[in-house]
Amino acid sequence: MRIVLIGVAHWHTPFYLNPSLELPDATVVGVSDPDLQRAEEVAVRGHCPAFADYREMCTQLRPDFAFALGRHCDMAEEARFLIDARIPFAMEKPCAISSAEAHDIAQRAARAGVFAAVPFVLRYCPLIDTIREVAAGDNLQYINFKFVGGMVDRYHQQRVEWMLDRATAGGGPLLNLGVHHLDLCRVLLNDAPLEVVGAAMSNHTARLSIEDHAMVLLRGGGATCVVETGYLYPAPNSVFDMHYSIRTAHHYFAARDNRTLEIVTDDRQRTTREMPLTNVFFYPEFVRDTLRRVQAGEKPIADLDDMARAMDLVQAAYAADPLQAPHTPPGGAWRSRPS
Fold first, then answer.
1. Are 29 and 87 in contact (CB under 8 A)?
2. Is the distance from CB of 328 to CB of 316 less than 8 angstroms?
3. Which H or E run includes 316?
4. From CA 108, how far away is CA 247, in angstroms rounded?
5. pTM for the model
6. For 221-237, how does the pLDDT look when each residue is reduced to its tens digit (9 = 90+)?
7. Domains of the chain and CATH, by start
């Protein structure tokens, strides 16, 4: 397969580039970014030409597949171009900065029959099959995901300052990190409808137009769900303060680090299983599996419709928080309490 990468100044580019370069039946034939110098830096690694304009790149190279990244505010337009050009693609979340945009591109891809994957990579996590195996027949009662990432200085270090402005990023850690866990709630609850019943946001630490901490409370499928995310942890990139807790009718599952799942039964029998539990572990599998699926004519593990449903929850959470300005249109000012 002849692969191109769009928007390669994005810090997740290695998650897609490195696995693609390792595949014997795939070739990276071009990379693009509006900052041509950044594209040229990646092109050296990919041994391919660099472009400033992804449209020119795709028209000239006619790729078999595209991994699309870039600024969040540019993603929906990238998706529309790829759909119109009938180029199969995978697009880094969140694919849009509003629910309306997300639904628009999902509907366009469905009408055109274009393969459009979204890297909700936690769908590959062994946690899902473990719960279904160990607690078979149990109803889920409570789900709690805490996933707090590094502070906002990492985005300055990675030269992606656009991530810190609501107009270009669309939101903070809820939109950037929390979508993984909102989607995982949907998967664990077998796609039962979820409703946001409460949310609390703050920007106390960074004082930016985006939130740096978010807590969202949801109900659906007979369960209560809590998703907490933030840019608060003084840690390197891809290191998180993470805690997962899941209660079923007869079992309690708890992850207190990124490799160990504790399982406790109601009679207090405790076991542990070693498994990867954070998103960064699963991108190589996503790349391999996605390219296999498109070649085999199969559906992606998650698509733009899944992204739109997660975006609905994000937007409902932003609307539910009294400190948050209305999220649509993007770029609204932050409402803060008097100090």
1. no
2. no
3. helix 304-320
4. 38
5. 0.93
6. 999 999 999 999 998 88
7. 2-120+286-303 (3.40.50.720), 121-278+311-320 (3.30.360.10)
